[in-house]
Amino acid sequence: MASKRRQECGSADGKRKKKSCPAEAAQFGSAVEDEQVKRAVKEAWSRRSPYSEGDLELDCFPFPHCIIKNFLSSEVFVENLQKELLGLDFHEKSNDLYKFKQSDDLKKRTEPHIAGLREGLFGRFRSWLGEVLGVELEPTVDISCARYEHTDVLLCHDDELEGRRVAFILYLVPPWQSSDGGTLDLYSINSNFQPQSIVKSLVPSWNTLVLFEVSPVSFHQVSEVLSKDKCRLSLSGWFHGPSLERPPRHVEAAVPRSPHLPRDETVLLEWVNPAYLDISYQEQIQEEFEDSSEIQLKDFLKVILSFSASLDSLPPCVKACWELLHSEAFFLLLSNFTGLRLHYLSTGSSTDSAANASKEKEPSIPVCCGEVRRWSHGSYTLLHDGEAAQAEYALDLVLPFGCTDWQSEFGGLTCYVANEEDEELLTIYPEENSLALVYRDKETLKFVKHINHKSTSAGSSPCRGFYDFSFVYYE
């Protein structure tokens, strides 16, 4: 009879209703079960000093974290847990911070080994951890499963969110080396409590639990997975409890804005493709721009820019192009392209009636700010909340060079999203000498997607990348 029940559990034969198996109890390894080890870990954690005994290692640099090998005592349990997890539905997760596949919340999953681990983690192990920290942890269940495969990544962040006190990751990976990528990288901080550099990298290993205290300085990342055939499978989540005190949040200085430089149309004749100086073509561009609030102008410059490997000293042509984008003549040209009031001679109307009404009340001097940026493997930008507060409306300009044959799978795409939303509204692909213009309001933010290692294997250069001018203009 027992054998028959095991066969029926979790399956349907067409006549019987599908049943849930009872949870398989998760048994922890000796490092967790040993009372003497628990007392020693508690003392070391309170003193912020390192401790190691058997399968357990505690280190407090750059912030307190603990590694427990052979976390679960039964190899059969771990193998069955892995099988159940691989049978789940996974969803692609992608935004400015990460790219990987994640399961739904495992709070209510009934698979016997998933349920057993969940009960053990948020039951007996939560009590163990609470004693070690000297903190009463809440019974809140917060756990999911993640699959990281080739080029997947989770960029630098601190995990801070209301109620999170300790983060944990249980690895269920095949034999793994640092050359496979996917390491858990821990960051040191600077005097402003901001991430500075990677000072420790933890290589995932089978049946190993890593946990760390969530704090304003717990900056970490999952480095890009480089292996093409291995799956970095893990269970992760948080134990909830009272949050640690946060120091005042550091606010980075904004890029300085400046009005146009006094340069006449001669600079346009020298640099810009003559087709874009034709008045009738400018009217056509403006009509298209006013319909969609964005446009890409191919072969924009007639001068081919050449960048050196280092931007420590800019070539003269780059400095000259910088002056072009700052020039009074270029402000007027942008006005003609977009209908925005970026020059006093502009007769166009704003692309947004509300924006136009606000300009009528309070005339202002058009200004811009800009950067020359070098993009290569590992480069990215994140969404920045401060952007939303900088201006009601803005015109973005991006002009890339050195990206001939660049492929979208490399990354480096500029993505626009609504504030607090993940869905992409617009994607700008790097295209050689193609001027991209995007008009956005303060609730539309942008980021550049992480450039993965595929970019280094394409083409002849081992450090392949590209450059761009990135400017923002304000009416």
Automatic annotation (TrEMBL):
Tell me, which GO biological process terms does this entry list?
regulation of translational termination
Where does it localize?
Answer: Cytoplasm; Nucleus
* UniProt cross-references to Pfam families, sorted A to Z: 2OG-FeII_Oxy_4, Ofd1_CTDD
**InterPro entries with a match to the protein in the record:** Oxoglu/Fe-dep_dioxygenase_dom, Oxoglutarate/Fe-dep_Oase_C, Pro_4_hyd_alph, TPA1/OFD1_N, uS12_prolyl_hydroxylase
- For this entry, the protein name equals Prolyl 3-hydroxylase OGFOD1
Which SMART domains does the entry mention?
Answer: P4Hc
Q: Known catalysed reaction(s)?
A: [ribosomal protein uS12]-L-proline + 2-oxoglutarate + O2 = [ribosomal protein uS12]-(3S)-3-hydroxy-L-proline + succinate + CO2
Q: Keywords in alphabetical order, please.
A: Cytoplasm, Dioxygenase, Iron, Metal-binding, Nucleus, Oxidoreductase, Vitamin C
Q: Which residues form the signal peptide?
A: none
Please verify whether the record's keywords include Oxidoreductase. yes
The protein's predominant localisation is cytoplasm
Subunit annotation: Monomer.
**What is the protein's species of origin?**
Salarias fasciatus
**Physiological role:** Prolyl 3-hydroxylase that catalyzes 3-hydroxylation of 'Pro-62' of small ribosomal subunit uS12 (RPS23), thereby regulating protein translation termination efficiency. Involved in stress granule formation.
Question: What cellular component terms from Gene Ontology apply here?
Answer: cytoplasm; nucleus
